[in-house]
Amino acid sequence: MASTLLSARDLRFLIYEWLDAEALTRRPLYADHSRETLDGALELAERVATDHFAPHNKTNDANEPRFDGERVHVIPEVKKALEVYAETGLAVAGMPESVGGAQMPHLITSACGAYFQAANLGTSAYTSLTAGNARLLLAHGSPEQVRTWVPPMIEGRFTGTMCLSEPQAGSSLADITTRAEDAGDGTYRLFGNKMWISGGDHELTENIVHLVLAKIPGGPPGVKGISLFIVPKYLVDADGSVGERNDVVPAGLNHKMGYRGTVNALLNFGEGRHTPGGSPGAVGYLVGEPHQGLAQMFHMMDGARIGVGAGAMAVGYTGYLKSLAYARERLQGRPLGGKDPERPQVPIIEHTDVRRMLLAQKSYVEGALALVLYCARLVDELASTEDEQERRRARLLLDVLTPVAKSWPSQWCLEANSLAIQIHGGYGYTREYDVEQHYRDNRLNAIHEGTHGIQALDLLGRKAVQEGGARLTLLVETAGATVERARALGGAEAEYADLLDASLRRMSEVAALAWAGGDPAVALANATPYLEAVGHVVVAWMWLEQLVTAHGKEDADGETFYTGKRAAASYFFRHELPRTGPQFDLVASCDRTVLDVPADAL
Amino acid sequence: MASTLLSARDLRFLIYEWLDAEALTRRPLYADHSRETLDGALELAERVATDHFAPHNKTNDANEPRFDGERVHVIPEVKKALEVYAETGLAVAGMPESVGGAQMPHLITSACGAYFQAANLGTSAYTSLTAGNARLLLAHGSPEQVRTWVPPMIEGRFTGTMCLSEPQAGSSLADITTRAEDAGDGTYRLFGNKMWISGGDHELTENIVHLVLAKIPGGPPGVKGISLFIVPKYLVDADGSVGERNDVVPAGLNHKMGYRGTVNALLNFGEGRHTPGGSPGAVGYLVGEPHQGLAQMFHMMDGARIGVGAGAMAVGYTGYLKSLAYARERLQGRPLGGKDPERPQVPIIEHTDVRRMLLAQKSYVEGALALVLYCARLVDELASTEDEQERRRARLLLDVLTPVAKSWPSQWCLEANSLAIQIHGGYGYTREYDVEQHYRDNRLNAIHEGTHGIQALDLLGRKAVQEGGARLTLLVETAGATVERARALGGAEAEYADLLDASLRRMSEVAALAWAGGDPAVALANATPYLEAVGHVVVAWMWLEQLVTAHGKEDADGETFYTGKRAAASYFFRHELPRTGPQFDLVASCDRTVLDVPADAL
């Protein structure tokens, strides 16, 4: 039976036929790799995700982490899965040689990660948060900090978290009140409460490395006074062994609708439960310079945002494959015009509306996978090109695509999960099947790491206008090159190229119209419809790229891969892209309905 | 604190200012009623729903019904709530005098029912299923059947169910295999399994009256051979007292994502656990003539479908009110252009995107409430008018609006619940707050009592074309009259009247274009986008009706009701109605993408 996590055939198509991963292996940074090592990693990820992550996905959901007032208990399958994951070396694979990594392209490690997210979003969150944490320290930590904390994280002995939110400051980081007092010995002592900390406490690993945003008293107000600290659960001795307990303790767990496999904790820092070194406060180590915390954290955050999009995609993708398998097996009803009840029932995939729901899902999840991998490829470009112009292009494109790569899969792959439930009918609504959990798990993704609305402000308020709109212009140019290639091919490719071309123009023009009055309140009043419309345009571009890549390729006997790609592309261009028309019109009109409604009239 | 179930002010506006319930009380059927009795019922419903249904909504969810292999256990709060409900007399209120009812307009009993649905969808399902069951027997049962079963149901001593689906036949009723053998004594013996039976077993009441679809051997194949039977859990003695156990037993419960407060069972009929009267088979009593079961059941089903829409609306409505209350209280961030971190944080309702999410919810839930009440008013018209033409109009309009009233709230009030979560941020995703349960509960509504896709086929395949399209034509005419009234008012009313007018024309024209080729497969390939577009047009009409009703009315000091109505109407016309453009274009183009995609290319 084919895997119901991701389609390996689709990954091969995107990674090799489209994004030319083999070209990356000819660059110095990735020179140790070849098609063989990349394929090996992908196959290993699929196997370990299938055998060690997927089996306890439901168990995790039904037996969420439990806090006994002192310790957090997690089902044993999670620890076992993380141990096996560590043994695979996949966490180390993408890291630089300097810390023992294999310098594998991000394109491949992202695809590997997606297998784990599809198999078990809850358990895989520990690995992705830890990787993000390690990368942040590689970028901003001192050599000593890197030596102390990074190897145990990428080897799976420690996990990592990011501690931003506080009960009174979720999206509003200017208002955090956790304070870090200079201890005079090169360390700080932290006091405060952090909320929504994924992986915040557990006994899955020897230690937990918290990266914590806090304010050093006397610093500037608001976000300008935020610094970043390493605050381990256990202090580490000079020889690297785990030592005294630090004063960071769980105060409670959040009980969520989904995503239950990941511990989500309220953490207290410096409440006095422990007194490391005999003094009050949680011991913290400043990363880089004071007051640079927000910028440093955003180094991790941008990657985390694309990671959220990747998770949303992966959960959408597996839901699609499961509903596809169900639709092929489940017998129910008869075709239109052949309702004779004496004839046997047909598999529900024979019903047009079921095919519509499958094709919609396919267009969302494969479109989202393409987008996530395209972003990963840009990360590789940024890391590996020698050409300064290319680096700048990659950086700007990644900047403008990040809010889209975060928000679009969170919205549309959730919709895919809803359609997967719908295909299963009443069964899909029960906990006997997997799809209801996917739907619950996926609903978080529009909230964490910057809400949907915050992504919209980021796109229309910053990314679309900074540096004279350079990012949006570059996006239009880059997608415009795809339009030209598709036009040259004629046929459906040319037809859809025209549609994309018109949408790209409208996307630019509408951003200008929104800002024409110069009033941010008016410009941003409809930022969310703008974000959603841009998302559809970007994914339409991803579909045109796939069509161009598939051009002229015929399916081998018994295969239908390219036929399916063409059908899903057609679905996206005919059923989906037109949604953007009214959205762009609304933004262009600077509609003031939501801006002007008095709060007390709601 | 204002109720967070439904807005009593909105109900008064819709029921009295718009739908003129007082005019109904001047008709003979409703002559016992007055504004006072109607208000009394509404206030009673709000109070009992608040005090006895809402408090255990979460408890029900966290402690779902449990089957010990023999008996089904439900938390005691449910039984208590149903007892209090029975004492209120609300179940009897809408019934005819002939069975001791108070003949209250359906408009009012629907609104009362919505309070209970908003408070606790799970517990209220027992009451609405029982009412539907009683109404079906009133319409199709023999006088003796009515005497035996209806009074105990409306008095709350018995509950009722509808048993349609079987494990192999969910949406495909032609394939049911439960058989009913003539026992030769005027009764039948039933054998078979029924699936997804809400309220299928419990000990909340003395007895359960199952209405069961089954086939009498030798009858015609498919749906033409379906008959309807009363199959009680306990036989009833001649004096009406509950007697011997019948052979209908639970085989298991379904464990669902939401809607957990309602027992949902797999029932076995005639498996031999009991042998009533010493013979095998569950004793059943034929309702009406053999082979009329489907038509009879649809008498209940049409009402049940609008009831599903009402439930979806109610859950959406309470989610809206709760997120509104949260948005007024939760402090977070600062307005655009006033980001000084030294200033205090503002309530999140000050953020434009939060107002957008509130206004969207308001436009969905108040639009849905208007639609549900409009349908209830048509039921009253049908029941109370003396004019044959008016009866026909009411019946045809109700016919064409039923798939919309079922599907539109199921889709958009679920979306409202998603926005309610989003406004709560991370908190909304936790089980500490109510909104995540609303979202889970509401997701069922697009599935049960005819899936979303089945509603689409019903609309475009039947309701839009039967009798030369008379129903759609009548809908256009009726909404057209609203357009004319609104145009005469000028201003925003006239502006939106033009938009609705164009949409109504397009709605008709597109149905004709879809069917132009005469091939049902092509016509119905895009039935779902058609249903969704028509839903938006119908709700736009509901908003124009509300605008016209509000015209010239000024808010009293300290009130903002009409201002809010106007803002929500503007939102719907500017942000929502335009979505229908691309949907109608797609249907009009007879797009074949989903029709032509080969099943094996998915």
TrEMBL record, chains A, B:
It comes from the Bacteria. Residues 292-458 form the Acyl-CoA dehydrogenase/oxidase C-terminal domain. Residues 162-261 form the Acyl-CoA oxidase/dehydrogenase middle domain. Coiled coil: none annotated. Signal peptide: none annotated. Its cofactor is FAD. InterPro entries: Acyl-CoA_dh-like_C_dom (IPR025878), Acyl-CoA_Oxase/DH_mid-dom (IPR006091), Acyl-CoA_Oxase/DH_mid-dom_sf (IPR046373), AcylCo_DH-like_C (IPR036250), AcylCo_DH/oxidase_C (IPR009075), AcylCoA_DH/ox_N (IPR013786), AcylCoA_DH/ox_N_sf (IPR037069), AcylCoA_DH/oxidase_NM_dom_sf (IPR009100). Keywords: FAD, Flavoprotein, Oxidoreductase. Residues 479-597 form the Acetyl-CoA dehydrogenase-like C-terminal domain. Residues 43-156 form the Acyl-CoA dehydrogenase/oxidase N-terminal domain. Belongs to the acyl-CoA dehydrogenase family. This is Acyl-CoA dehydrogenase. It comes from Nocardiopsis lambiniae.
